[in-house]
Amino acid sequence: MKPFVLLATRAEDLPADEEYGLFLRYAGLEPDQLIRVRLESEPMPRLDLDALSGIFVGGGPFNASDPLEKKSPVQQRVEAEFAQLLDEVVARDFPFLGACYGIGTLGSHQGAVIDRRHPEPISVVPVTVTDAGAADPLLADMPATFDAFVGHKEAISQLPASATLLASSPACPVQMFRVGANVYATQFHPELDVEGITTRIHAYADHGYFASDELELTLAAVRRVAVSHPSRILRAFVDRYAR
């Protein structure tokens, strides 16, 4: 099997390593089948799409909608690299699945409106599949509404005509979309379980996702219901595109 690639942007080793482990576990891949590139520490290598099965993008602290002057040199480099990669990915309709920050990269590339009108605190939210989503192979085995982990300051408020809306939540109109037949992005985290999001809550406690006195409330919010369905999307992606 040709490997998949995980493009990651987390600078903190513990959540970065755990993110990679979660993608491995829930996608059903072995370490030699999922190449990790930590973009926060090294430039994106030239990816030969003909040698790959597909591309995953993990989450991270970058916000695509921040003004250019507030973006670090690292973020500006990463965004330029993603723009170049997505030119080829979209043109070839190559298998791509971006989670959280991945929705910002693909959304920006496609001209979506990304702003801070639809943030969601770190929590569990009900995600509802659209009619187009119900017909999509990655969501075929999902319930019409399923619970998922979220936590984001920005979101897409308007999709371009090139995109197909696949899922929404009460506070966030774009939870998942597709471009072409094989290029996907989710606002929610399909890779997370409760242990993984607990690690991130502690790791990013001072990043403005919640007030300093809301740590325990945030930890309780992600434990209020069991989350089990979103990870099926990762396995469906691998099953569909492994070659």
UniProtKB/TrEMBL annotation:
Q: Which domain of life is it from?
A: Bacteria
- Cited Gene3D superfamilies: 3.40.50.880
- Where would I find the Glutamine amidotransferase domain in this sequence? 49-193
CDD domains tied to this protein: GATase1_1
| InterPro entries to which the protein is assigned, alphabetical | ChyE-like, Class_I_gatase-like, GATASE
**What SUPFAM superfamilies does this protein map onto?**
Class I glutamine amidotransferase-like
* GO annotations of cellular component type: cytosol
The protein depicted here goes by the name GMP synthase (Glutamine-hydrolysing)
